[in-house]
């Protein structure tokens, strides 16, 4: 019985130890996230950094969306950081999200920051996606290491002399240095708006330089020709002086002629003003007439020599009457082209009724003249007397 009691207590103690070990293992696994579902995402970075550890946080806009599961060093020197992302939050992360490795403080541990893009994609991040780190924060100890390696190669005595020379150079010139920095800031502010134009000029500069290089031989030939011309001018300077003297004499003679006749030339120009105004006003009609002559001159030659004439009989127009048919001085008919410069074949230009004094169509179409005055007076009322060239002055026309 004593043996059974001892055995029972040993079994209970062993089970109790196993339960304690199980509780510790479960707690540690839960603390490490072993029971939390996760989606694996890989972040490729130039380096992981000295203070990047597993279980580092992955944040998006300050919200934790995952942790760093492990860090793998690749043969090319880069680092593949395996991220354990929260599956429930993947749908809120766009697939084109950017990432960088940063630290909250200078000496603090690093974490992964997801940066939303300016134009987020409609697709969400998926498990197994590979991201590229855009930036990895440089650690202070790395800076110290590089600075130490640089300082180890500097001679302290020479550094002391250099610093003493710099101190002597800046001593008493603080105001001037500050003004120089202020002027530099002003100049940079003035230049900055023109940087896009400067970048464009630099882009086209190779093309312009190539064009100048291609035409270099032509430029050299032009310079050689210029040298030859200069030599010719030097050799012929006597003739050039003679020509210049002749031009001076001609200018003096012209000055005498124009100066002595200045009033007469002025009056002539004033007298030409009305004529030139008239020509300017009737320039469209003059152009039509000259253009019509050009068309006529370019007509093909006739098959047979001679002048073809097409004749026929038409009703006569109304006779010339006085004083309604007297021509008017300074009439206001204006320029008329009436179909010129190109008239279609077998086309008669229309008669343009203008205020020039006579209008052969004022009584209608021409026809037989039978007691025309009586008919016209019946239709149109009193009209002017008989034609001016009629032998029967005072009788009905």
Write a structural description:
- With 397 residues, the protein is an alpha/beta fold.
- The chain contains ten helices and seven strands.
- The chain has helices spanning 2-31, 140-151, 156-170, 174-191, 195-214, 216-235, 237-260, 262-281, 283-297, 372-380, and strands spanning 39-45, 57-60, 63-73, 79-85, 98-103, 110-115, 130-136.
- It has a seven-stranded mixed barrel.
- A hairpin with a 2-residue loop joins strand 2 and strand 3 (63-73).
- The longest helix has 30 residues, at 2-31.
- It is elongated.
- Mean pLDDT is 75; it is low at 388-397.
Biggest sheet overview: 7 strands, mixed, barrel
Distance between the termini: 175 Å
* H/I helix tally: 10
Q: Count the strands?
A: 7
Shape: elongated
Radius of gyration from the alpha-carbon trace, in angstroms = 55 Å
Query: Which percent range describes the beta-strand content?
Result: 5-15%
Uncertain regions: pLDDT < 50 for 5+ in a row?
A: 388-397
What is the helix fraction of residues, given as a range? 40-55%
Strand order of the largest sheet: 1-4-3-2-6-5-7
Along the chain, the helix and strand elements come as HEEEEEEEHHHHHHHHH
- Overall pLDDT: 75
- From the helix content, strand content and strand pairing, which structural class follows? alpha/beta
């Amino acid at each position: 019985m004593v043996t059974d009691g001892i055995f029972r207590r040993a079994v209970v103690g062993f089970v109790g130890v196993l339960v304690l070990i199980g509780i510790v293992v479960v707690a540690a696994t839960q603390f490490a996230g072993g029971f939390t579902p996760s989606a694996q995402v890989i972040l490729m970075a130039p380096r992981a950094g000295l203070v990047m550890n597993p279980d580092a946080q992955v944040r998006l806009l300050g919200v934790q969306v995952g942790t760093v599961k492990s860090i793998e060093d690749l043969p090319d020197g880069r680092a593949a950081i395996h991220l354990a992302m929260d599956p429930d939050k993947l749908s809120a992360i766009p697939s084109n999200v950017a990432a960088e490795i940063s630290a909250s403080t200078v000496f603090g541990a690093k974490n992964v920051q997801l940066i939303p893009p300016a134009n987020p994609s409609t697709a969400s991040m998926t498990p197994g996606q590979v991201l590229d780190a855009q930036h990895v924060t440089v650690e202070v100890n790395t800076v110290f290491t590089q600075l130490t390696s640089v300082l180890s190669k500097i001679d302290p005595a020479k550094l002391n002399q250099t610093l003493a020379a710099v101190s002597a150079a800046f001593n008493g010139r603080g105001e001037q240095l500050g003004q120089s920095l202020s002027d530099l800031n002003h100049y940079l502010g003035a230049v900055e708006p023109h940087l896009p134009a400067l970048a464009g000029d630099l882009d086209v500069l190779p093309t312009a330089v190539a064009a100048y290089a291609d035409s270099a031989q032509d430029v050299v030939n032009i310079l050689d020709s210029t040298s030859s011309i200069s030599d010719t001018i030097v050799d012929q300077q006597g003739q050039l002086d003679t020509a210049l003297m002749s031009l001076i004499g001609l200018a003096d003679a012209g000055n005498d002629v124009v100066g002595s006749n200045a009033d007469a030339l002025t009056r002539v120009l004033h007298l030409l003003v009305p004529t030139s105004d008239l020509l300017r006003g009737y320039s469209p009609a003059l152009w039509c007439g000259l253009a019509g002559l050009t068309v006529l001159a370019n007509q093909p030659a006739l098959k047979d020599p001679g002048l073809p004439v097409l004749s026929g009989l038409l009703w006569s127009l109304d006779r010339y009457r006085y004083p309604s048919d007297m021509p008017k001085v300074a009439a206001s008919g204006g320029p008329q082209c009436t179909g010129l410069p190109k008239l279609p074949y077998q086309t008669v230009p229309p008669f343009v009724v203008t205020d020039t004094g006579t209008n052969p169509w004022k009584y209608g179409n021409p026809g037989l003249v039978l007691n025309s005055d009586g008919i016209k007076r019946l239709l149109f009322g009193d009209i002017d007397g008989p034609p001016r060239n009629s032998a029967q002055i005072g009788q009905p026309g």
